[in-house]
Amino acid sequence: MATVELSRVWKRYGQVPVIHDVSLRVEDGEFMVLLGPSGCGKSTTLRMIAGLESISEGEVRIDDRLMNGVPAKARDIAMVFQSYALYPHMNVRENLGFGLRRRSVPREEIAARVAKAAASLGLEPYLDRRPHALSGGQRQRVAVGRAIVRDPKVFLFDEPLSNLDAALRVSTRAELTGLHRRLGATMVYVTHDQVEAMTMGSRICIMQDGRVAQVGTPMEVYREPANAFVAGFLGAPPMNLLSGRAEPIGGGTELRVGEAVLRLPQPLPPGSVTVGVRPETLQPSGEVGLGRLEGRITSVEQLGAETIVAFELAGAATVRARLDNTFAGAIGEAIALPVRPGCLHVFDPETGALVLRA
Amino acid sequence: MRRDWLSRGLLWGALALYTVYTAGPFVWVANMSLRTTPEIMAAPYAPAWTPHWWKFVEAWTTSNYGTYLWNSVAICVASVVIVTLVGAMAAHALARYRFRGRRIVGAAIFSTIIFPPQITIIALFQIMVEYDLYDTRLGLMLVYVAIQLPLTVYLLEAFFARIPEALYEAAKIDGYGGIEVFWKITLPVGFPAIATTIILNFIHLWNDFLYAVVIISDDNKRTLPLGIQKFMGDQMEDIGMIATGMMIAVIPVVLFYAFFSERLIQGMTAGAVK
């Protein structure tokens, strides 16, 4: 197994940069998830690690060996594609052994490794079938099996679950996490699905517009987002991001969000700010906390285990709160929810950077 | 219910009419191939009540049909093999690689498809004479390769361009590169398209008369279409024997098509790109 390191990597198509100065280190045996919306550069970054895209500037190292000029086939990596990219003219057995045949692995060893991979993925009954005779989930497992038999230094996954239905995605997610535990392999996994990222990753690298927005464990990036983009991208419903104004009062700050007033013990310079509060931190209680967000309920979504309530904050935008399923409020009724200390984020409205957590 | 029967009847009627229109001439020639010329002259459309199978033996033994057939097979098979290999490689390069001048090369190849073959005949004849290729099987084969190559590249390039890029990237990561990718991925995945071009090229070249009559004059180098023409001059337009000769020429093509179309359908269903 190996480490993967990107140092100040740029990718330009002509004069247009799509990856800006990305630096990232994936530790040996780590499951790193590259997460971000479409077009953020996560797949391009993965393809540069794989050797399928050239690097305009910077360095990519696998196991401390410089890979910039090394072709894909010599990087000792395996990749699972979004479309699976199974060879349609070969059966499952041939698909699994194709890479090993090129590397002149003895026939008996190929057979043994294919059989082992097929057994671990439950593919034994399908070894003589061609890809068109397999279901989506089976194809996906063949694609993973093709990577496993190679026993590579690094596994790369490019949105491998996005073609599966919701139920299959959940079970395959667990299978892939189990696979990572069993193999202890270094894996880099690209997805735009935050649930996949949160449940599978040892760490998550969130990308925005070709840049690394934040790297951290799932709970770190969720609880302590480095900027408003990360805060708004993670969570369903996402963090409430509200426009407000900061006014220094005494040793602290008064934050005005519409007609609501929140009092922080920390000082902030006067001016516009973006205030962030996670929906699940807004819970009805007798406490005042940092202040109360009040308004009239505009929608109530009963999800069974929980209830998502939206209310119009007087003089500001809509706020969402994730409450328990016993909540009995109705549309049009008044609601007032306190902001708990330690659950408020203040961002710079221009740069989006985190200014304060209170 | 009544409307269903009506529309079904109309459909069957249209299909029957089309079948008669396309298969009619073939059936007529097949019928004539079993009748003598005097019988045909007396009643052109009458069926062969007493089929004269001996005409096939006579056509084969009294004429040079064995040689014509061999020439046709050798020239057509060699031409089709070369056209398929070179055409598939060119199509693979045009579909897969982005290189300087790619569009110009593509346009130059494809532009030759629009010219009628007749306009090149005189120049072609001169070139053949100049390079001692006139009246040689090699010369005719080279011409066949040259005239069929553009359409082959055109058809295959369109199909190869639809093979997902991820397959090639997967092969790259599996350790395959350059020409290996062509043999291991493009050829097998593109087999349905390749089989189509093999059928089209083989039938087209097997039936070619124009280039063969211009380039070949020696009787021992004639292909089947030229052999049939011999009956028109040498045997006073023996229409019955011409029909017999045509059937001898057509039967291999029909067998070839029957065999390959089966393979083609198998290839399409088994190797389909999903």
Automatic annotation (TrEMBL), chain A:
Source organism's superkingdom?
A: Bacteria
| GO MF | ABC-type transporter activity; ATP binding; ATP hydrolysis activity
GO aspect biological process, one term: carbohydrate transport
The cross-references to InterPro entries, in alphabetical order and at most eight, read: AAA+_ATPase (IPR003593), ABC_transporter-like_ATP-bd (IPR003439), ABC_transporter-like_CS (IPR017871), ABC_transpr_MalK-like (IPR015855), ABC_transpr_MalK/UgpC-like (IPR047641), Mo/tungstate-bd_C_term_dom (IPR008995), NA-bd_OB-fold (IPR012340), P-loop_NTPase (IPR027417)
Task: Domain (ABC transporter): give its ranges.
Answer: 4-234
Name the CDD domains for this protein: ABC_MalK_N
* Gene Ontology cellular-component annotations: ATP-binding cassette (ABC) transporter complex, substrate-binding subunit-containing
**Keywords for the protein's UniProt record, in alphabetical order:** ATP-binding, Nucleotide-binding, Sugar transport, Transport
- Name of one Pfam family that matches: ABC_tran
Give the family this protein belongs to, as stated in its UniProt record.
Belongs to the ABC transporter superfamily.
What name does this protein carry? Multiple sugar transport system ATP-binding protein
Please tell me the species this chain comes from: Amaricoccus macauensis
Question: Lineage of the native species?
Answer: Bacteria, Pseudomonadati, Pseudomonadota, Alphaproteobacteria, Rhodobacterales
Automatic annotation (TrEMBL), chain B:
Membrane as UniProt keyword: yes
Membrane topology of the entry: Multi-pass membrane protein
Q: Where are the transmembrane segments?
A: 68-95, 107-129, 141-160, 181-203, 239-260
Q: Which Pfam families match?
A: BPD_transp_1 (PF00528)
UniProt keyword annotation of Cell wall biogenesis/degradation present: no
Where found in the cell?
A: Cell inner membrane; Cell membrane
Q: What biological process terms from GO does the record include?
A: transmembrane transport
Q: What region holds the ABC transmembrane type-1 domain? A: 69-260
The protein's matches in InterPro entries, at most eight in alphabetical order, are given as: MetI-like, MetI-like_sf
Purpose:
Part of the ABC transporter complex UgpBAEC involved in sn-glycerol-3-phosphate (G3P) import. Probably responsible for the translocation of the substrate across the membrane.
Q: How does it assemble?
A: The complex is composed of two ATP-binding proteins (UgpC), two transmembrane proteins (UgpA and UgpE) and a solute-binding protein (UgpB).
Name of the protein this chain belongs to: sn-glycerol-3-phosphate transport system permease protein UgpE
Q: Which organism is it from?
A: Amaricoccus macauensis
What is the name of the gene encoding this protein? ugpE
